[in-house]
């Protein structure tokens, strides 16, 4: 699905043929599929309206208007039959049911990085709340949206919450000014708390392993600390130095190369495909000899949100690898072997890493830098995939 102004276009994934074309009441700012791909919501935050469309019954439609309360966020519940709307100033979260047309309200949601978290099986929802200048967490049963537990947290300024994949432990972490991770059970008991240091900037990112055995914590001190699920103690620290010296680490470096064009095919004026190939550059990976110095950017200390520390973390689906990005080495992806707790591979790109994502079925990492290329890594090696733009032809 894609949106152009106020139109929603749904295409077939294999043929890219248009299946449905919907028209909304205003410019679309956010779209999201339901978990079963039968519905799609379109949020228009400026107007405070959400429209829902059915793929099975194109003539069916639903419109949710939050009115004067406004709208700043909208998402599906895991069952794909309820919509959660967050009103302006985070006054409340409104839960709309598409089946019974009932409405439920959750008061005092906190405006933070990740204030709502669902368990992987979709049974429970945790909401971060702020009441009387103190942080709380409420746990709801998604079946009927009844409150299961409500408890306060030992945080100065709760920044985010995240369920373990098994749904048994909830991680909550404090603002970057206070290094603190709290681990709660489903009934609200505090299982453990972890603090690596006190005064410098603290936690920047958090990721659970798919098996729920490890919790990786990325910090502003350019390190990743991994906690185990038995004692909730640190088992290792992963550092991100600007120079790779270990000869067992494979360093892939992206390099650009000039395109090769057969002179017999040259013509004037050149065809569109030929002109595109003449003036476009291609890239590939070379294996660098260790030691390797990576591009390091010194952070500006007197500005807010400094570009320093581990800001991106992701475990592979088989729990064998962890991918990280250190924000002051912005062109590099670090891939760690979790079985050995050692650095296995470093990918050095020409441009800044925008995002990366693991394949849900196998240990394969996709990396994007904002260019027209997608970079894929697997234990077998690296490859650069050129993504053609609209109207381009491949030679």
From TrEMBL:
Q: Which superkingdom, per the lineage? A: Eukaryota
User: What is the designated name of this protein?
Assistant: WRP73 protein
Q: Name one GO cellular component term.
A: microtubule organizing center
- InterPro entries given in the database record: Centrosome-WD_assoc, WD40/YVTN_repeat-like_dom_sf, WD40_repeat_dom_sf, WD40_rpt
According to its UniProt record, what is one Pfam family this protein matches? WD40
Q: Matching SMART domains, A to Z?
A: WD40 (SM00320)
SUPFAM superfamilies reported in the protein's UniProt record: WD40 repeat-like (SSF50978)
Which species is this UniProt entry from?
Answer: Prunella fulvescens
